[in-house]
Design brief:
The complex is a heterodimer of chains A (269) and B (196).
Chain A (H helix, E strand, L loop, with lengths): L1 H13 L1 H15 L14 H29 L2 H25 L3 H16 L8 H4 L9 H8 L10 E4 L3 E4 H12 L2 H9 L1 H32 L4 H22 L3 H11 L4
Antiparallel strand pairs in A: 1-2
Chain B lengths: L1 H15 L4 H4 L2 H19 L2 H15 L2 H9 L8 H23 L6 E9 L5 E8 L6 E10 L2 E9 L2 E2 H14 L5 H13 L1
Antiparallel strand pairs in B: 1-2, 2-3, 3-4, 4-5
Classes of the chains: A mainly alpha (269), B alpha+beta (196).
Chain lengths: 269, 196
């Protein structure tokens, strides 16, 4: 399933201009219904709940057990090494996004990290760059679009539950497709040979899924157990968390906007 | 033995919770400080039902629970009878206390460092803090504090940008909508969860 997803993303490489235009239409279309965090725009709730149910089943029988085993049996240093390798593979996409966000300095640091960790850090297993004063950062196209969109960051277009991947919205879903389409790691492996590309991407996204799930076990279990409508609670938590990341980006350049929004958001009805 | 280790712990906790001088006099910041110290103390000294009761007392003292409950019910609060409101608050507060007791059961020596305190024109104070973990990144926690009848009270907690009250509101209102718009359905669900 992950491979299918990567496949569809690769297909979008050619159509990323179309995706951009679609994004503009979707974002523009929802500007008039600025809903904020409390009521996330969810016009396709019925299909979303359907995919959500399938995802929970896949999670229950496959992903969660693997994530629990991984968390409990893999030594902590091993987990850290794997996470570093996966993060390192993501650095080029982060750097591209940082350039688009207008922070070439930060992008240079990210490229520096990638070069140092890929070589001295042995394919990224060890994060030597952090010790050398190059701190880690993580950017994606969803955040970049959100950074430039004039809307409240809670408004990422319609909410959508993606197969296997889970909660997303128009903004972040389009961002994900663009990120995947310009990912040098995929481009290189697929240019060697189709099979190499599939195997490498499959291993990478499979490992990413297990790693991410193992780190969200506690928070998601808690949210599920303490909510009366898990789907709605997760939708809200996802939207707020993404909005918080985008807001942190915007705040760096505009301190006053932050105060304003806190007043606007402060428990609006 | 227990007493001695407790004393050592409290000494350590008070050092770890030490505030920057400029935040020390702020009533909102000191509320967060005392609340977290009380909770850590409870975790160290109590178990099970006793801990849950203790945490419930701390929640009742430091949080404005009726305000939070009212906010979590959103637009449905106004159309609910006062009898239902009372039952709803009782059930929702019970559920939160239980959830918190369980969450804190996982406590593994994390420390809370208080940061910037921002008071806004509308009287709400936001206290930034970080929960430092032994492994992994610190977790960002923001506390929203309001003045309730002369005393500061916590009215929302945001973990990594996720507001407890807003998440609950989406959760509760969605449940009510899917049950024919009846608040009674939510109250009964919360009440039946308490007995489980």
């Amino acid at each position: 399933m992950v491979e299918n997803l990567v496949g569809s993303m690769m297909a979008r490489l050619r159509g990323s201009a179309v995706a951009m235009m679609a994004a503009a239409v979707l974002m523009g279309g929802c500007a008039s219904t600025d809903t904020g965090a409390a009521e996330v725009w969810d016009p396709i709730e019925t299909p979303n709940r359907f995919i959500f149910a399938i995802n929970r089943t896949i999670d229950m029988i496959a992903i969660r057990p693997l994530a629990v085993t991984y968390r409990d049996w893999m030594p902590e240093r091993g987990q850290k090494g794997i996470r570093n390798v996966l993060d390192n593979l993501g650095e080029p996409v982060t750097a591209i996004n940082e350039v688009v966000q207008g922070s070439p300095g930060r992008a240079a640091t990210t490229i520096g990290r990638f070069l140092v960790n890929s070589t001295i850090g042995i394919a990224g297993i060890f994060d030597v760059a952090s010790a050398m004063g190059m701190p880690k950062s993580k950017e994606d196209m969803g955040k970049t679009i959100g950074y430039y969109a004039g809307t409240e960051p809670e408004n990422g277009g319609f909410y959508i539950v993606l197969p296997v991947i889970g909660p997303s919205n128009a903004r972040d879903g389009v961002g994900l497709a663009i990120d995947a389409s310009m990912d040098p790691f995929s481009l290189v492996t697929f240019s060697i040979n189709r099979n190499v590309g599939w195997i490498a991407s499959g291993a990478r996204y499979g490992a990413t899924a297990i790693d991410m799930r193992s780190r969200t076990l506690f928070a998601l279990d808690d949210l599920e157990k303490n909510s009366v409508d898990y789907y709605a609670a997760l939708k809200s938590a996802y939207t707020q968390q993404r909005a918080d990341l985008i807001r942190a980006k915007r705040e760096k350049t505009d301190g006053k906007a932050e105060i304003d929004r806190r007043d606007n958001l402060a428990l609006m009805r | 033995m227990l007493l001695a280790s407790r004393r050592v712990f409290l000494a350590v906790a008070s050092i770890l919770l030490a505030l920057p001088a400029w935040a020390a006099n702020d009533p909102a910041a000191s509320l967060i400080e005392t609340t977290s110290a009380q909770v850590i103390d409870l975790i160290k000294t109590t178990q099970g039902a006793q801990r849950e009761a203790g945490i419930r007392r701390v929640l009742e003292q430091s949080f404005d629970l009726s305000y939070m409950g009212q906010q979590a019910l959103g637009k449905y609060w106004a159309s609910t009878s006062s009898d239902q409101q009372a039952r709803y608050l009782k059930a929702a507060v019970g559920a939160e206390a239980h959830a918190y007791a369980e969450r804190f059961g996982q406590y593994g020596g994390q420390t809370l460092t208080l940061g910037k305190v921002t008071t806004r024109p509308n009287g709400v104070t936001v206290v930034d803090s970080r929960l430092n973990q032994s492994n992994g990144q610190p977790i960002k926690i923001e506390w929203e504090v309001r003045d309730v009848g002369g005393a500061p009270r916590i009215t929302d907690v945001k973990i990594e940008g996720v507001s407890m009250v807003i998440t609950r509101r989406t959760d509760f209102t969605s449940y009510i909508q899917n049950n024919g718009g009846k608040v009674e359905a939510l109250i009964q669900e919360l009440e039946s969860r308490a007995t489980r």
